[in-house]
Amino acid sequence: MTSSLSSRRAPLANPVEQLATLDASMTGRASFDETLRGAGWNALTPATLEIFQINLGKLCNMTCRHCHVDAGPDRSDAMMTRETVDACLRALDQTSAHTVDITGGAPELHPEFRYLVDEAHKRGKHVIDRCNLSVLLLPRNAGLAEWLGDRGVEIVASLPHYRQRNTDAQRGDGAFEKSIAALRLLNAAGYGQGDPRRMLSLMTNPAGAFLAAPQSSIEKEWRTALKRDFGITFDRLLALNNMPISRFLEWLIESNNLDSYMSRLVDSFNPAAITGVMCRNTISISWDGRLFDCDFNQMLDLDAAPASAMTIETFDFSAWQDRNVVTRAHCFGCTAGAGSSCGGATA
Amino acid sequence: MSDHYYAPDHLKAFGTISEGAPELGKKFFEYYSAVFAAGALTEREKALIALAVAHTVQCPYCIDAYTTECLQKGSDVEQMTEAVHVACAIRGGASLVHGMQMKEHAAKVGM
User: Fold this and answer.
1) Which of A25, A130, B53, B89 places its Cα 20 to 30 Å from the Cα of A95?
2) Cβ-nearest to A161 among B43, B44, B76
3) Dihedral sign, CA of A274, A275, A280, A281?
4) ipTM of the complex
5) Measured between CB atoms, which of B74, B77, B79 is closest to A213?
6) Chain B contact for A210, CB < 8 A?
7) pLDDT digits (tens, 9 = 90+) for A226-265
């Protein structure tokens, strides 16, 4: 188990330091923008806005080694206020986005979580809860799975692997056992059994410096193994690459894997993955109401291009759509291999 | 030229082996890609077989390459270790089963 970069006052807690490290790792390699141009994209432009991804804050009951948010139990310093939640809802009402994707930290720990879910549900939106699973076992969250199911909320649950070793290596000792207990609890609440109102999606990401497995090729094996070993069912499997930022970046440096990992991402650039990357159909809103192209840019303080004068309070839909996505070296993480976004593979 | 055997950079440069015999290189690498594409076996299963064989032929390039490949295809270290034990068992068993020849010959020449 680690602790947050922030609590350790580690230099990498500063996004400027992370960007400088990433830029240095790209020496001698074509930049992401140059690579995009080589694939026929002069810039990454927005597609139809479909997803409001709201990051409620950095508070989490876990401290995973790969966390791109630098979340943890000590991060109650960064929590969205009710006023900002309401501003998100007013902005949402300006758009025809069909999905509200709630993330953190562990969003279920946030005092406004249920309010936001209820308000998005009332508006007829598809609501996603990005869940670390173990949070569902906390006494304060007793009955939460049923409550979410009553509102048709999709659970996107993090589970690195269907076996213990890789899961605990990334998320801490005991994480796998808690995950299995939480998945059983979700199954008991009707999740993961083909009901579109109780969708249970599992999100796997690699426990190391390699790319995510192609989700379509491993889903059947996951389904068989989780059913056989634990009696657990789920609806779909999503695979996500790790972004070379925050605590995963720290691990890459400490394990002397940064150079080879960046080579892997750059060498695995897949032009077919570009169209579906999340930054094109998503608005990412931080706990303090700033606007970003994606949750990763958010953690690097790379504000969205029109956002210098725009926050969620002053959101203007047409100005939002009239922008180019801000890109840096970490973007190779979303275009490597089968592609990678909050919805899984993109190619 | 490196001053030791098995330089890690050789793996990255493997494709340049075609320079001496381009047609044969092209055929080999096309065949190689086709072998590892999903078919009756999945890509993950083929990567595990390759990992086991890599240990049998004791190729450090292949061990590195197929360790990463197995992980990227969704296997974990426990599964990969079992694959290596399969290679080990066959290799050890192959030695041991030759003991049958030893037994027969000893029986023939002995009293």
Assistant:
1) A130
2) B76
3) negative
4) 0.73
5) B74
6) yes
7) 999 999 999 999 999 999 999 999 999 999 999 999 999 9
